[in-house]
Design brief:
alpha/beta; Nucleotidyltransferase, domain 5; 5 strands; five-stranded mixed beta sheet; rod-shaped; 133 residues
C-alpha cells in the first residue's frame, strides 16, 4: 500500500505581481522626472538700481514695426533671427567670455525674446536683459 505525502512544496513562482509593481514604478519615475526638470533658460537679469560689473561686448535690439519685428546688432539692422546669429558670431569671434546685452521694446512678444536667448545659449554667450532704472 502506497502512502502519499501531501506536504510537497510547489516550486513555481508567479512574477505577475512583480511586473505590475515595476511597471507602476516606471510610470511614476517618468512623470516625476519631467516635473522636476522643466525647460528653462538661465538669464542674468540686472537690478536697475545697480550697475553691472560685466560690460556687454555687443548689443541686440528688437523693435516692433507694425506686425513684424526689426532686429539690430549694434546699430546695424539685420534680417531675421538668422541674421542676428551671423552678426553676433562675426562680432564675438575670438572673444573670451562674450557678453550680449538685449534691449527690447515693451511691445515685443516674448517669443522674439526667447529666440534671441536661444541664439545666445547655442553659441555659449552670456546674455543680459537691459532694463530701465
Amino acid at each position: 500500500m502506497a502512502i502519499k505525502h501531501g506536504s510537497k512544496v510547489d516550486k513555481s513562482f508567479s512574477s505577475s505581481a512583480m511586473t505590475d509593481l515595476m511597471f507602476l514604478l516606471l510610470i511614476f519615475m517618468l512623470i516625476a522626472t519631467t516635473l522636476i526638470n522643466p525647460n528653462a533658460l538661465k538669464l542674468m537679469l540686472p537690478k536697475s538700481s545697480n550697475q553691472l560689473k560685466d560690460k556687454a561686448i555687443t548689443t541686440v535690439s528688437i523693435q516692433q514695426s507694425g506686425s513684424s519685428y526689426n532686429y539690430y546688432v549694434e546699430l546695424e539692422q539685420v534680417k531675421g533671427i538668422d541674421g542676428v546669429e551671423r552678426a553676433l558670431q562675426a562680432r564675438l569671434e575670438g572673444q573670451e567670455d562674450p557678453t550680449v546685452s538685449l534691449h527690447c521694446d515693451k511691445t515685443v512678444a516674448i517669443d522674439e525674446v526667447v529666440k534671441v536667448m536661444n541664439v545666445a545659449k547655442d553659441n555659449n554667450y552670456k546674455l543680459i536683459l537691459a532694463t530701465q532704472p
